[in-house]
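This is your field. Pick holes in the following sequence-structure pair:
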Amino acid sequence: MSLSSEEREAVVNIRLQQAKETYAEVSTQIEHGFWRTAVNRLYYACYYATTALMIKNGHQAHTHSGLIGLLGIHFVKTNIMSDEMGFVLRSLFELRQKSD
């Protein structure tokens, strides 16, 4: 599927809004001791933001692990993003899987 630049920008904006809203949920979850839910919300906030980044740059992942791989290839290995940032997304993904 090919998106026009306007469509791509709209999707990126929607994903970024989803990331912000999801991240806003985290403090409430932590406040109430819902740690698994907090990890889940943190992961999805990162997931939505990373998806926006990929779409903005013309990359498309079909799976969550594929998204993590694309982040590594296009942003971490090229030093656009730090290793630590890639590690955060991978770690949250693994924690989320373990808590399901």
Remarks:
- The CA atoms of residues 22 and 44 lie 7 Å apart.
- Residues 5-99 form a domain with the Four Helix Bundle (Hemerythrin (Met), subunit A) fold (CATH 1.20.120.330).
